[in-house]
Write a structure and sequence with these properties.
By secondary structure, the protein is mostly helical. It contains 12 helices and 2 strands, in the order βααααααααβαααα. Helix 1 runs antiparallel to helix 12, helix 2 packs across helix 3 and helix 2 runs antiparallel to helix 12. The chain is globular and about 55 Å long. The two termini are 17 Å apart.
């Protein structure tokens, strides 16, 4: 049921920021758990895991891939990497939603300043802020989800969070590369080992601008259109309305940013496919195009919609519900 609320809140206060972040963290955990099996399959498709390439490219392929994982490893296989997801998503979503509230209040202090460009900017800055603080956890999660028995037969069927983190830290040059490449990479990794946890960081940051910016722009625009502020008060949307608006926001954002997401996944698993060195933007893009053409940049998009539409809807709805319970 919709309720009417006042727009007068001190959004810059520490109490508001903490509660907004807590609401966002809880929302992210609930949403990610709801779509965890789809997330595992999508990562396998995007990163071109050799076990699952035969399933990619169709709506039914995602279902058949999920069945294959279930037959091989059961429910735990479908949730592989989810522990790292939860460790990452609580601070990631918490910081993202908290930062959005803060950036929006800063960029749009009044209705007169409310423009689509400012909405987009607030969302993009919120996404970039959250990624900066939580990216190593994202990389560990992707590595855990990417592992399968064919890609690494010596590893356990279900890698632990600590093992995935250790493997990333120990990655280095192999005997299949030139001496110059080995020397250069070894120097960089030995001097700055933390950089191993930031493979694909630049493309992630660039991809976050259209994704988070478009998601929050669409969210804010649709809420303002259907639930406009009048006399400093607005009608609070119902749970179903927040679900619907959040779902549409996710679908639009996914479509805009998906090629960058595929590039990011390939770079993130570069430590497995090419542990000796960094995979740069140009090389990764050429590799994707040579193996699949333009369609290669959209592999897994169908399952991406299956995942992102309910996830965004649930995330925004739970975030708003928690804010309401916390009196925000």
């Amino acid at each position: 049921m919709s309720t009417t609320v006042s727009g007068q809140r001190d959004k810059h206060s520490l109490g508001y920021a903490v509660r907004s972040g807590l609401a966002g963290g809880l929302a992210g955990c609930v949403a990610k758990t709801a779509v965890a099996p789809l997330d595992r399959v999508k990562i396998l498709f995007q990163a071109s895991n050799p076990d699952f390439q035969k399933y990619a490219g169709s709506w039914t392929g995602a279902f058949r891939a999920g069945l294959a994982i279930y037959r091989d490893s059961g429910i735990r296989g479908l949730l592989q990497g989810h522990s790292a997801t939860l460790l990452r998503i609580f601070p990631y979503a918490g910081i993202k939603f908290m930062a959005y509230d803060q950036w929006r209040a800063f960029l749009i202090p009044s209705k007169e300043h409310e423009t689509n460009l400012r909405r987009f900017t607030a969302g993009a800055l919120a996404g970039m802020t959250s990624v900066t603080f939580t990216y190593p956890l994202e990389l560990i999660r992707v590595r855990m989800a990417f592992r399968s028995r064919v890609t690494d037969q010596s590893a356990p069927a279900r890698p632990s969070f600590f093992r995935a983190m250790t493997n990333i830290y120990q990655e280095g040059a192999t005997s299949h590369t030139s001496a110059a490449s080995v020397a250069s990479t070894t120097h960089i990794f030995n001097r700055f080992p933390i950089l191993k946890f930031y493979r694909g960081f630049t493309v992630t940051m660039v991809g976050m601008i259209p994704y988070a910016g478009t998601a929050f722009l669409t969210w804010d625009f649709l809420r303002a259109h259907f639930y406009p502020v009048r006399d400093d008060t607005t009608t609070r949307p119902s749970i179903l309305a927040n679900l619907a608006i959040g779902a549409v926001s996710g679908a639009v954002a996914q479509t805009v940013s998906y090629p960058l997401e595929v590039t990011r996944r390939r770079m993130q698993v570069g430590g497995i496919t090419r542990p000796d060195r960094w995979l740069g933007w140009g090389e990764t893009i050429r590799m994707i195009y040579s193996s699949g053409g333009v369609r290669g940049f959209y592999v897994g998009l169908s399952i991406g919609y299956l995942k992102i539409i309910p996830m965004n809807g649930i995330s925004f709805a739970v975030w708003q519900g928690c804010k309401w319970l916390m009196g925000l």
